[in-house]
Amino acid sequence: MLINCVAYEDGAKLADIEVEDISDYVARPNCFVWVALSDPVPEELAALQEEFGLHELAVEDASHGHQRPKVEEYGNSLFVVMHLVEPVMTRGKVEEDFNVGEVDVFVGRNYVVSVRSRSKAGFLGVRERCEREPELLRNGSGFVLYALMDAVVDRYFPVIDSLEVELESIEKQIFDQGGAPRESIKHLYELKQRAMVLKHAVAPLLEGAGKLHGGRVPQICAGSQEYFRDVVDHLTRMNASIESIRDTISTAIHVNLSMVTISDGEVTKRLAAWASIFAVCTAFAGIWGMNFEAMPELKWRYGYLMALGLIVGTCGFLYWRFRKAGWL
Amino acid sequence: MLINCVAYEDGAKLADIEVEDISDYVARPNCFVWVALSDPVPEELAALQEEFGLHELAVEDASHGHQRPKVEEYGNSLFVVMHLVEPVMTRGKVEEDFNVGEVDVFVGRNYVVSVRSRSKAGFLGVRERCEREPELLRNGSGFVLYALMDAVVDRYFPVIDSLEVELESIEKQIFDQGGAPRESIKHLYELKQRAMVLKHAVAPLLEGAGKLHGGRVPQICAGSQEYFRDVVDHLTRMNASIESIRDTISTAIHVNLSMVTISDGEVTKRLAAWASIFAVCTAFAGIWGMNFEAMPELKWRYGYLMALGLIVGTCGFLYWRFRKAGWL
Amino acid sequence: MLINCVAYEDGAKLADIEVEDISDYVARPNCFVWVALSDPVPEELAALQEEFGLHELAVEDASHGHQRPKVEEYGNSLFVVMHLVEPVMTRGKVEEDFNVGEVDVFVGRNYVVSVRSRSKAGFLGVRERCEREPELLRNGSGFVLYALMDAVVDRYFPVIDSLEVELESIEKQIFDQGGAPRESIKHLYELKQRAMVLKHAVAPLLEGAGKLHGGRVPQICAGSQEYFRDVVDHLTRMNASIESIRDTISTAIHVNLSMVTISDGEVTKRLAAWASIFAVCTAFAGIWGMNFEAMPELKWRYGYLMALGLIVGTCGFLYWRFRKAGWL
Amino acid sequence: MLINCVAYEDGAKLADIEVEDISDYVARPNCFVWVALSDPVPEELAALQEEFGLHELAVEDASHGHQRPKVEEYGNSLFVVMHLVEPVMTRGKVEEDFNVGEVDVFVGRNYVVSVRSRSKAGFLGVRERCEREPELLRNGSGFVLYALMDAVVDRYFPVIDSLEVELESIEKQIFDQGGAPRESIKHLYELKQRAMVLKHAVAPLLEGAGKLHGGRVPQICAGSQEYFRDVVDHLTRMNASIESIRDTISTAIHVNLSMVTISDGEVTKRLAAWASIFAVCTAFAGIWGMNFEAMPELKWRYGYLMALGLIVGTCGFLYWRFRKAGWL
Amino acid sequence: MLINCVAYEDGAKLADIEVEDISDYVARPNCFVWVALSDPVPEELAALQEEFGLHELAVEDASHGHQRPKVEEYGNSLFVVMHLVEPVMTRGKVEEDFNVGEVDVFVGRNYVVSVRSRSKAGFLGVRERCEREPELLRNGSGFVLYALMDAVVDRYFPVIDSLEVELESIEKQIFDQGGAPRESIKHLYELKQRAMVLKHAVAPLLEGAGKLHGGRVPQICAGSQEYFRDVVDHLTRMNASIESIRDTISTAIHVNLSMVTISDGEVTKRLAAWASIFAVCTAFAGIWGMNFEAMPELKWRYGYLMALGLIVGTCGFLYWRFRKAGWL
User: Fold this and answer.
1) Which tens digits make up the pLDDT trace of E72-103?
2) C261-325 has which fold?
3) pTM of the model
4) For chain C, which residues make up each domain, given as ranges?
């Protein structure tokens, strides 16, 4: 679906144009065309491929989707793939899974084609912000690429934050004595999966974006190098955060197992201690329950009291010992 | 076994030719010969070695088989080894093991020799596709190498997908309370082995294929660089997926152990709690089973009821306490 | 909040100046201005941005805060972000958390702007020390950057030391038989989190600072290269220490679990051994408590004594066996 | 001990010569001398050091032995250290340890000195093979180095294979319910040690041999580059195999622990379930064993049968429940 | 404390000289001065700093001590820090801790200053050995640096060996059934700490020493390159050994836990099996201890024998079953 198609000259918007008129505008020297598509049908992509002379392999990637994030040069043009990672909401509740969309951007000297797939969150705000800053937009298509990249990357931050918040809530649960270790561990496992999804969005993009500043930079991005470095910096920070989260989850899984083992050990000790106390009690009672004829104490007046006293005393002594040993 | 031997000129098929006639065709300027072999006998390889002047070490590798995937330059020619990883099917059921075949490709300016070993899945489709696109096949032997590589790599995708599906089914089993931890862990272990087989197919090929685009590229592949980058891109994605799978398996093994420990702990607690309740019951009964003469309560009219009441009451109290503590 | 704003010439302090007068001083050849801010309002930053021509993206980073440590070149000027890691004290007691502040430094040929955020510990001492050594301060703004960096880095040492001390105290607790494994493991987990905070302060700064000595060095720092190498050396040492701490914590978590398992095993064995002894006792008593008519030993004169002897003997034998096996 | 000392010219054997005559032969242009020693005494090494002008440090290394594998250049000559890893056999049975021998090779333009230590397996076969292929031996001393290296490396393959076979047999034992976990884990541990010995033989040699092909290659090896690449390729494959083995062993240790925990849990559950059933039985019996006078059911005609029925019924019910829960 | 101060010319000792006369000797072309200090007071360092023009930062490092091992260039001079790792002996017994001393070496074209701190083991032997080999000492101050480095590095070998011996003794203890897991694990933990101390001595020195051979080498060391490569080679070997030790310790900790779990499981099974046997025994006895009037078997002549027979038979059957299952 074509969302919009606009021509810009010297950083200012010229007009909303038709796809057929594109070739008129791209011929002008300081002019570039910015086309936005969403879940396009093959014909739409084919039309644009012809208009802008996009490379066959790049178009194939864009129409197949499910690419890993990357920044590829085809001659003087760039093909950029980014992931959109969005928490799934069903009936106002966040589900424990991510929806992974994709933005593919074709950038040439005088055009930008952005193709959004499998995601509902558009980039109209990016276009508006760009149009409000014509002095930056004058940098041309490279700056538009930066603006799109920056918008995508900025959307990762809240996702990473929410992972960190979830992780903290699990940590509390782990160290809480009445916790539910089964749920904690399941939650940790799911969290690790989601951290991996984010990792696969961030790490390859970081690698790709690194080619857009410093050293040998594609012509189109040369004027916006410092902006791309800013994006790389954000991605580096995110990457470190995700690594921290993954590392912490691994530790938390170990720690959770330790807490369970400790907890189980305590309960086992307590129950076993009580069982021992009653076993002693039963053993004593069993002895005086024997049917021997010659058991003088059975006939004593206070034999029964003595027996009860002995039993209660022994049990009490054991209780005191176990208490002291910290088992009860 | 020779499968076929065809000469191409300017991207179009000239003729099926005999091995003896090869030298006539390779002498022509824009002509190349594409020979396909399957599990060849040494004589067949020797004949081709002479026709094309293949390097002794490369031919030795191809006839021994069981090489690791690699891309080697011998002067102006290339020798490429790729693994074919195929699930084994016996009577319509997928077995938990892979059949690892091998494709060795010799590529020179005017010839391609592909040698398939220990695998039944041929590459006729690749040849047909190439012949349908003469404008691409005009790129010469380098493009044929790409086409073969692409076909091999594309066959890894369903294998990786099936590993991911299996992994998910084990995950369900792990978090399912009535699960079979013994089977889960065995399955995880086997899965890890298979992921390693895939890893050994993908990672070295990724490394080797990286030499075919960007930087200093062998002459033969120069015209198809962007295609090889596409292959590298696929391999990079696969490599990341395999790493994810391996990492997830490791976590799953830990998590499985944790779940078992938690589950065992719960059962132990429950059984021990019940045992405690009955031990108390037995202890009380034992006391009134003693044979002391002077046990006044034995003669009370409602002594028995009182005793039963006390026993049931105590057990009930314990039951309530254990329930509250979450052990029952 | 502006803390101070001083002009220096040839390494000596000229005068405390007003922000408006800055442009007069930066014009002089051997003169530079050093401005210190603390948690500035946007207007203050904007004013300095204009005075010194600071780059928009750097100013944005400084006003947003929460950057990762970095050393960035903007043309001939540098933008440096460093973390301040301070233990939180409440009522004289160290809390188990860090306060992470930030120092952002803009350095140009003839100015230094240091912006401190979210931290109470100032850098007046650094300025004083610099003013006492005019022969070093003559090196210009690069040397001021070194002095600030050195001060920040030196503050990490006691923090790392305190982590090491805490770790040692936990180690003692782990190997102490009457230890509290639950607390140990919680403490280890918290320690790992804090080590990670430090890591995120040290590692990226090490990476960034590495660009300030050896190889291609920014013009401003060229004269102070050996000083920056010294800072890098300190950071490298810290980084190694933090890695050691993290590694040791991981080992300690494993070891703690092992100690708990060993401890639990010992207690379980002891309790189970006692339970066995009493179970044997009960079983014997049960047998002579049966009501068969024809049980000759019940009528023996010393039957009871014999029974008691047998019971005590068997229990004694078991006690001796268990003792020998190390279970009691 | 001097094994043999032969002069070669243009790839063909000239004569077995005496150590004293060496200098006559090395002076000829296309001639080189190949000396083989085994566990030499210092005098033998000293004599050769003088004849060929070997570097003092290299000779020291060779006489001390116990070097790590390496490839070192001394001016125009090479000094290569390789490990020989051999399973120890005592009375026809393979012991669980490796004998680590050493081959040190000095290579100059016109000489090769190979020194074998602490190993009984000689390299006569290598010499014979070389002499059968004069067209390759014409490449000079570099080719002899390749031939020796290839022979050493080829001997690693069966060792690695045997490790893999052993690992598989342990795997079977782990997943076998009647397995011996204690032996499995001990075996795994020993296997890991041996894998480490192999690793220390292969990895440094791989690193060193990498310098002998591609990029800047020592003069002596220039003509045999592709052969050395072949050796590197074998070493890379071995290195990957060893890494796989190590990784698999780590996983297997974890999995073994899991299997033990699962097994123990099952047995504990079963025993505890039976104990519960009998505890219930005992508790009931205890109640009717009390000596209260007013226990009407004791006088019922079918009281006993009723009691037995109740006891058996309850136990049967418990048995059914436990069975359903999978504990029995 | 000044240990000695000697001038050398052309590799031969000239004279023991006074600190004040140093400047006379360093002026001569082929002459250099070698000063050795031990735990110097600041004045001694200051005097030498003036005599040789040592860099301020290097002197600061040397007087502070506790640096990480490093090799730093200050213009044409070198500053080298090395650790001395010595087992602590108290009353003839090796303690489980290391004493970490330090040697700081300043090397210029015509001087060597070695500063030993916190260690009693001197380097007189190094000086003597150097003086015995004037043809090597002629290489100048660089060779002295090599000799010192070699001496320091050679002292690591016995320390690493002792770690390996200790590790082997723990291994034996782990696999010994009557072992003391608590002590093993504590010992392993301490061993890992000590391995880390060694690692911190070896790894950074390896990194630093790598700059002294191959590639761009400091002028002073140019003539002794091959000697420094030898040192690097030793350090590489040590580094690999330490890594092996660390890896083995980690595995050993896991294996120890596994052995404990297996051992505990066996004991638990055995005790639980015995408890089950006696519980069965008690249950039977309980039934015939009930006080029902109508229990015909109680009146049978051989009822008691039958009961005993049944009890013993059942217990025997259980014993046989448990034995077969390997629990007893």
Assistant:
1) 999 889 999 999 999 887 766 666 788 999 99
2) Methane Monooxygenase Hydroxylase; Chain G, domain 1 (1.20.58)
3) 0.89
4) 1-134, 261-325
